[in-house]
Amino acid sequence: MFKTIADPADCEVRSVIRFLNAKNVKQAEIHRQLVEIYGENVMTDGMVRKWVRQFNDGRTNVHDEARSGRPSVVNDGLVAKVNEKIRENRRFTIRMLCDEFPQISKIVLHEIVTNR
């Protein structure tokens, strides 16, 4: 019996799939070997099939693609405007900035003041 590996990184599992696929191991055998070493919950047969297909189509990267999340409202123009308001009154409060920039949340304004 082999030693099992708990909680592998996704890129580790994908690297194994890429390696075995390069050795022309069948998709079902790849899945069987993954389950044998990483456990039942490692990856479904369909996901293994998806990754084998992607590697066969020329993909070489085993890491997740960058995703576009919710766009940030913080940009250089907004930071400049907030800095300008702060320079006008050094005794500002976040509440005062909220009155000046009602479209921007208090949390985002606080982030700009403290991090930018």
From TrEMBL:
Subcellular location, record wording: Nucleus
Single GO cellular component term: nucleus
Recorded superkingdom: Eukaryota
Residue span(s) of domain Mos1 transposase HTH: 13-58
InterPro entries, alphabetized: Homeodomain-like_sf, Mos1_HTH, Transposase-MT_Hybrid
Cited Pfam families: HTH_48
Protein name: Mos1 transposase HTH domain-containing protein
Lineage: Eukaryota, Metazoa, Ecdysozoa, Arthropoda, Chelicerata
